[in-house]
Design brief:
Rossmann fold; about 775 residues; about 35% helix; eight-stranded parallel barrel
């Protein structure tokens, strides 16, 4: 049997030395690696995010200062066809690279899965089959010292056997109990098999410990849920015996006393208890049905089960509360084994920083908290539907993989600062200092967005009647300055910043004239911002042909003045350019322009925008310049689509150019994506427009249909017949070679049409 090349020194000390040398709080990392089954379909996150195909992703995680990596050595991927047919090639190359990096893996064998197609979670043979696979892994890689045979077993049992989301799609307590017992027996047998090969192997057992609160009438139900969440750990620790709170429940739903006694006799306590906690894991049960829309009432239970953060005045306990509970109940070493939130970038930053701070605080109180794990390092796909629908919905992680190479995000940069600082402290201090907590770096040194509280700590989180006294944290920290107070884009950025907890000032020209160096300097001195978002400018493309001096001042000179001032102050700048820097012919028809395409503007407006791009980046290379096109917005009554739909509503024809192809841009998507990019520290030119292209006439037809009108009201005409004085390119569709981050045009039109139908679009 293959183990290692004969000429290689046995690597048993490589991972051991790296794993055991830390005395500070460690940073761990891991890729989202679920392989689960829904019906006859399989979800493989390693494939969806590309982790399966990039060996150097291991180097990326090592670059964070990570001390361990949760590594998928998954049964479904290694032995997909038969229990005695293994394909080790992928795992061999990865484990060897981990050795070279001295980055110890925590090998995961089943991650939210049901095993390969030749078994399933209700298969009585599942435990032994898993143990057989674990034995083969240990024999091949005897230097791996940490394992998670089954990730989040209780969570998987709930999703697969209580809620019916995943295979085998059961919805009853008996199936839940059977699945959980199979998973836990498999875990014990797997560790026994592994330890026959590697006696020092550790069990790192993970699960989601979300807490449930309730109104007084439903408190008994919440008490049951709060006890049930410990079942996987209690079984491993041999604590499920007569007198256990759920002993009778387990027997009532199919467990036998003999198999429960087996867990007590074969106790396999976790060497490290891995705590996972998500915003949606904290629940609130409410019998006050009149306070909720009818669709929130569960027809099976007759009460409301809602995210606690939406109603609980005091907020949720989060990582600190769950760590303290686990320490009190189990007394074992702890780690936070997943830190991820699918949200805007600053909220992801706050979630990670607060998890790190919670671990330090609980550690300082005496608990043995070993690590915080940055999860979904390369993002995740379709978790917004709990992996029940394959729609390709991507949530970035430490890296965003939607470009030619994974791109480090602000979350990754924060993780790297935390990880490298902890690693340096660990290397500098002596072992005799034990578990003394390393101080957390000041938030302001890590990212300005960390000054603000997360949305889960602010009033906007509350969606229903508040239960208990509300506790809020004020938005604090230095502001952003946003120019263009009268424009669609400026107002949209201000609104987004309010929602995202980013202090800002939306400035009129009187408050800051971007083309006047004295005015700019005075504004920067007054507000002391950490960045400027410039949306000001002269937007009338046809008038720009005659109003040359004014439009040049606002579109070319102003951004250059801002760039010089921001460079001197050392603060960020984001400004906007246009698809009209292109002439429509340089790359031929049906070939969208990317950031490297040659710009040749046809009109005065485009020439000013191109001059601004060049001057801004010459004066402040760290600035972000966003090229975009053809806005439409639900908050603006003057854009092409809003005005056109108003015409159709009045039974008037809607004339639109059929000979000019553009990439339409939905303003909410633009603002969200641009803010994330800017918070990531991106610089240079980026193209941001919704994926897709259309002539103005085709765009009008698609918008009409989405809003419920007939295409017949749209009149496709030559652009020249619309009174356009400025020449336009016949084709100016945009794409990006840096990363295709924007949603598709069809999705944008559908969402805009929903706003139109609801009556919220100004008309």
């Amino acid at each position: 049997m293959h183990r290692f090349p004969e000429e290689q020194t046995p690597p048993s000390s490589t991972f051991a030395a790296a794993a055991d040398s830390a005395s500070t709080l460690q940073l761990w990392a891991g890729p989202e690696c679920t392989v689960n089954r829904v019906g006859d379909g399989w979800f493989d996150q390693c494939e969806a995010t590309g982790f399966a195909h990039r060996l150097d992703d291991l180097d990326r995680m090592a670059s964070l200062g990570a001390r361990r990596v949760r590594f998928p050595l998954l049964w479904e991927r290694t032995a997909p066809e038969a229990p005695d047919r293994f394909d080790w090639a992928w795992a061999d190359s990865r484990v060897e690279r981990l050795r070279e990096l001295r980055l110890p893996p925590i090998a995961g064998l089943v991650h939210h899965g049901a095993g390969p197609h030749y078994t399933h979670l209700l298969d009585p043979a599942f435990p032994q089959k898993l143990a057989d696979y674990a034995a083969r892994v240990a024999e091949r890689y005897p230097d791996i010292l940490a394992y998670t045979p089954v990730n989040e077993p209780l969570t998987t049992a709930r999703f697969a056997a209580l809620y019916g989301h995943w295979h085998p799609h059961r919805r009853d307590d008996a199936s839940f109990v059977r699945v959980l017992l199979h998973e836990m027996r498999g875990t014990v047998l797997a560790m026994q098999a592994i330890r026959r090969v590697q006696p020092a192997a550790e069990l790192v057992q993970t699960d989601d410990l979300g807490h449930t609160a309730a109104t007084p009438a439903l408190q008994p139900v919440a008490d049951f849920y709060n006890e049930r969440r410990w079942l996987a750990y209690d079984l491993l620790f041999g604590r499920v015996r007569p007198g256990h709170a759920l002993w009778d429940y387990l027997l009532r739903h199919g467990a036998t006393e003999a198999e429960l006694r087996w867990f007590e006799e074969a106790a396999c306590p976790a060497d490290i208890v891995g705590i996972n906690s998500y915003i949606t894991s904290e629940r609130f049960l409410d019998d006050r049905l009149s306070l909720y829309p009818p669709e929130r009432v569960d027809p099976e239970t007759g009460y409301v089960d809602v995210e606690a953060v939406r109603v609980l005045g005091a907020g949720v306990g989060g990582f600190a509360a769950r760590l303290r509970e686990a320490h009190a109940r189990l007394g074992a070493p702890l780690a936070i084994t997943e830190v991820h939130i699918g949200c805007s970038r600053e909220e992801q930053l706050r979630w990670l920083q607060q998890a790190w701070d919670a671990a330090l605080a609980v550690r300082a109180d005496g608990a043995d908290v070993r690590a915080v794990t940055c999860w979904a390092a390369f993002g995740s796909v379709d978790w917004d539907s709990l992996l029940t629908r394959q729609r390709g919905h991507y949530e970035p992680g430490l890296w965003d993989v939607r470009g030619p190479e994974p791109r480090l995000t602000a979350i990754g940069a924060l993780a790297r600062k935390l990880g490298l600082a902890a690693k340096a402290q660990d290397e500098a201090r002596s072992v005799s200092q034990g578990l003394q907590a390393a101080p957390a770096p000041p938030h302001g040194l890590l990212h300005p967005a960390l000054h603000g509280p997360g949305w889960w700590q602010r009033e906007l989180r509350l969606a229903y009647a508040v239960h208990g006294e509300p506790a809020h944290q004020p938005i604090a920290g230095p502001p952003l300055l946003i120019t263009g107070a009268r424009g669609t884009l400026g107002r949209a950025f201000a609104a987004a910043c309010a929602v995202r907890g980013l202090p800002c000032h939306l400035l009129t020209r009187q408050e800051m004239d971007i083309a006047d160096p004295v005015s700019v300097a005075a504004a920067l001195k007054r507000w002391q911002p950490w960045g400027v978002i410039n949306t000001a400018g002269y937007v009338r493309v046809d008038d720009a042909e005659q109003d040359g001096e004014r439009q040049w001042r606002e579109n070319a000179l102003g951004p250059a003045v801002l760039a010089a001032a921001c460079a001197e102050a050392g603060i960020g700048l984001m400004t906007f350019s246009s698809d009209l820097v292109f002439d429509g012919a340089a790359d031929g028809p049906h070939r969208p322009y990317d950031e490297a395409a040659t710009a040749r503007p046809l009109n005065a407006y485009g020439r000013a925008k191109l001059a601004a791009e060049r001057d801004v980046l010459a004066r402040w290379p760290q600035a972000l310049v966003v090229r975009t096109a053809a806005f439409f917005s639900p908050s603006d009554g003057h854009n092409f689509i809003t005005q056109g739909l108003a015409r159709l509503q009045r039974d008037e024809p809607w004339p639109a150019a059929a000979d000019q192809v553009v990439s339409p841009t939905y303003v909410p998507d633009l603002v969200s994506t641009a803010l994330d990019l800017w918070l990531d520290g991106e610089q240079g030119v980026w193209h941001l427009a919704n994926e897709g292209e259309a002539s103005w006439a085709e765009l009008a037809c698609q918008a009409a249909e989405a809003a419920g009108f007939s295409r017949a009201g749209v009149q496709a005409v030559p652009g020249a017949s619309l009174g356009q004085r400025a020449p336009r390119p016949a084709y100016s569709a945009l794409t990006s070679r840096r990363g295709r981050l924007m949603p598709g045009l069809a999705s944008a039109l559908e969402r805009y049409a929903g706003e139109w139908r609801s009556g919220t679009v100004p008309r």
